[in-house]
Fold each of these.
Amino acid sequence: MKVFKYLADWYQAKRQRYIERMKQQGKCPICKGYGYETIANAYVGHSIECHSCKGTGLYSEWENSN
Ligand SMILES: [Zn+2]
């Protein structure tokens, strides 16, 4: 299925660019540097610490957890 591969490649490239941008800004790509999970926040109604960066919002913490 060429279409699926195309979409997967496109998604990967987009994700890669996004991560690269977050790296330049020193921000965790998961929470965009906020330190908490915004999706969970919307559901639960209060802030939940981002697992990936341990609530620091730092790219370096995210990188360490990968
Ligand atoms: Zn984070």
Amino acid sequence: MQTATDDLARLAPRLLAAWRALRGGPPRRGPRPPPDRLAPEELTEVARGVERLSTGLTRDRALAGARYLDDPRLLGAYLLFYWPTSYLQARGVFSELPRAPGAVLDLGSGPAPVALAALHAGAAAAIAADRSPRALAAARALAAELRLPLTTHPWDPTRPGALAQAAGGKTFDAVTFGHVLNELFSGEGAAERRAALLEEAAALLRPGGSLVVIEPALRDTSRALLEVRDLLVARGFAVRAPCLFRGPCPARLRESDWCHAERPIEPPPMVAELARAAGLRREAVKMSYLVLAPRGEPWRAPPAGRVFRVVSEPLPSKGRLRYMACGPEGRLGLALQEKHVTDANRAFEGLLRGDVVELSEVEPRGDGLRLGPETRVTVVAKAGEPLPGV
Ligand SMILES: C[S@@+](CC[C@H](N)C(=O)[O-])C[C@H]1O[C@@H](n2cnc3c(N)ncnc32)[C@H](O)[C@@H]1O
């Protein structure tokens, strides 16, 4: 079966060609570089851009909200390093939707990894909208190379009427925000303004459509997203993924908690090489995300039984294995002692962040539930799969 990773492996040479075009061709010195790998001189150049983006977007955050994609070196580094990650993240979220979106509006698209992921996931057409003309030109060039039906539109939500202009009177099966919400409206009142923007975007959804928000898996950006989630849930929006809990997000109760997804990946060699050169890690895709239904559509009934989504990595300690989990009854710890492992509950040992499980015969213990030899553990959906019955 064709996977998103396979699709990305085939995309890598196109991204590289787009980057070389942006840069004005391959290096002048030395032999002609291969179409799917960076020459050493190119690698050093791109790794420098990746380091600047990484510092500016995830560490000191000095680039958040700045016009960094108008700088060809940073746009180039984005295309070769962050684009593949955003693409895989978006494919991961689309795979959780009950059906592939038909028409997509990708806001804050940059060079459109999310829109192109939607098109590869089966979307019939996509509009990529951003304020960076250079990023939109790169998006158009990539889509033309791949013969994908993508159009672009300038969009800056700080300008009145921007969303209606980008939508051009159309409605959509998905409106997406890939790593852009955290760059909009910083400071006091930011959560309110972000929620208002999402509400405005939700009004463009067709029945059954989805608002898809992907954010970095950083504590602050994730908690900011959870705050926006709570504002929208309080206004009657239903969450399609990842939440099974319908009240205010319990991860917001403690400042040290946040919520993110993690999917192991095998990055294309070019991305792995860049990660090494820039001193970053890329063996997993991490993100915070939210899929919302159009206003007024009800929450979908959770799968039967006591179900939970695993929201932590495995937490082994002194003869027992623990996870944090979140389900219709809230966020709590689940623990199983090694000596109580049986065939019926052995699946607990292999759970990954994002998996949804059904548990029978569990007992309240401390701040969570204790599984015993009589507990049955059934994996209802693996991370990244849609829930059954939706
Ligand atoms: C981190 S990039 C994300 C690009 C792509 N969506 C992705 O998921 O990889 C953030 C994007 O937000 C855009 N952006 C930031 N502030 C913006 C604003 N005020 N108006 C429009 N776009 C903005 C930037 O131009 C950039 O393309």
Amino acid sequence: MSILEGPVSDQIDSTTAQPARRYNYWLGGKDNFAVDRASGDEILRTFPTARLAALENRRFLQRATRFLAAEAGIRQFLDIGTGLPTADNTHEVAQRIAPETRVVYVDNDPMVMAHARALLTSTPQGRTTYLEADLRSPGAILAQPQLRETLDLREPVALMLVAVLHFVAGYGAGAPIVRTLMDALPSGSFLVVTNATKDPLPARMAADYDAALAAGTTNIWPRDRAEFTDLFAGLELIEPGVTPVSEWRAQDEPEPRPDPAHIAMYGGVGRKP
Ligand SMILES: C[S@@+](CC[C@H](N)C(=O)[O-])C[C@H]1O[C@@H](n2cnc3c(N)ncnc32)[C@H](O)[C@@H]1O
């Protein structure tokens, strides 16, 4: 199940902030260290609504999963950048609608591996698997035998890249990874992506974001609408297209919806024709 050598606890680095634990801190979880809280607080100084953005991203993930399971008939998910288990993980949302759903979770953080038991609570009819692997090596993810033992790649799969692609820095760096993964999936498969963006930010905050990237106090790489939309090249964008995560099919969410500048994250879902 793991490509780790030695006990998982030996691999956990409590001296460097990690995205999964920082996100867990913003979501109010307890699975984080002082270094993650300090990094989370540092980002809150330039982007004070980061906690709300994390919550809205999580709600998008759940709405997109419900759409895929209930409306699109998807029964297989490849969820890369899983994060630490929290309430309503992908398999729980999907299996409530279709208990036979199969989910492969992938993350590169050993801390997620240490908590993976909570991700492996499948219904008896379905199945969940956890792999430790890196999104930046999509070919290696596809080559893992456990992936094909759990997912039938002749049938549609939803590829979930929710709040993970922005840890792959560089303009245009996301598209080839998405392409490699989607090329391995058949017609009728879906792509779900969210990514931080500076687009709705006031000029002063956008400049602070650039300064934080340059100083290394954030490693969350923002993508503008054009670059984000390009991730869906060759796919049919599902209505309402590329939107702030807080506005995607959010008609049943409490009003008023947050100001997009307080979220600064795009979301979208596309279908492979
Ligand atoms: C912000 S969390 C998102 C969790 C979940 N997808 C969600 O949206 O609620 C990002 C996750 O991506 C993982 N991650 C970051 N870079 C990664 C990479 N190169 N390969 C695999 N996982 C990665 C982190 O360890 C973390 O668990």
